[in-house]
Amino acid sequence: MAEGGGRAGPGSAGPNLKEWLREQFCDHPLEHCEDTRLHDAAYVGDLQTLRTLLQEESYRSRINEKSVWCCGWLPCTPLRIAATAGHGNCVDFLIRKGAEVDLVDVKGQTALYVAVVNGHLESAQILLEAGADPNGSRHHRSTPVYHASRVGRADILKALIRYGADVDVNHHLTPDIQPPFSRRLTSLVVCPLYISAAYHNLQCFKLLLQAGANPDFNCNGPVNTQGFCRGSPGCVMDAVLRHGCEAAFVSLLVEFGANLNLVKWESLGPESRGRRKVDPEALQVFKEARSVPRTLLSLCRVAVRRALGKYRLHLIPSLPLPDAVKRFLLYE
């Protein structure tokens, strides 16, 4: 045991780290975790074995048990394991047999999150249809939307948006009146819109904006930008220019109503601009957009969408409006 009566550290367990992980994090005492056939079957996608095992009450009662399986290190539920491996048929079967879709592992990851991280669209869709939280868990610092935006998986991002995922990170933020452990942002890096631009994933960038992502996040959001590191971008447009994104990113932000006055770009000297590797065409588009007033048509579209709010944009197709107007409001 560690000094002072605390939990033993990994080093005290000798060479058998898996044994230590079982002792520290499994749902049951070590002697009750030896039978991992349910978890092993989920890992290899053996649906027939899952069917056979779950006919027995002893295994049905363990369907949400976190255990270390044959090839794993972190204690996980069978559903979490199947989602990681992308065995959609096993994911579906386990859910129908009573697996809880939003249980987290010791890292705070849900089954949906690991399905997204490993690029398994089918498993992600099955979990979403079963009611999985599209935002993942507040106990994990990343979200399914963030990861899909970072790696450019527009197909997965579409599915998450369709099931109501937060395209900003507001669900991870809490106002000052909340307890002191609530999180405050000190960088735009955690914003899905920012990360899609940083990795030059234009399709994901547009999908996020169409779904209502704040083009000015976070200057008019719940974040104090004075807490940002010196020299870091204070808004998405600033980040797009600094990361050398092509002109299409700038044009999209302009179309979706970004406040161009938030960027103090003209105050930076030529030397500073050079270090930031700004795309010349993108900078030209930005300058032109700021020098010319926006059309009334463009301003009206932005105003209507903001009045609806991002959580009601999906209702636009049901409005009693001409199809052309609805497509216009949806940027289609």
Automatic annotation (TrEMBL):
Superkingdom assignment: Eukaryota
Domain SOCS box span(s) in chain numbering: 290-332
GO terms, biological process: intracellular signal transduction; protein ubiquitination; ubiquitin-dependent protein catabolic process
Pathway noted in the entry: Protein modification; protein ubiquitination
Name of this chain's protein: Ankyrin repeat and SOCS box protein 1
ANK repeat intervals: 77-106, 107-139, 140-172
Keyword Hydrolase belongs to the record: no
Alphabetized UniProt keyword annotations: ANK repeat, Developmental protein, Repeat, Ubl conjugation pathway
A cellular component annotation (GO) from this entry: ubiquitin ligase complex
Annotated family: Belongs to the ankyrin SOCS box (ASB) family.
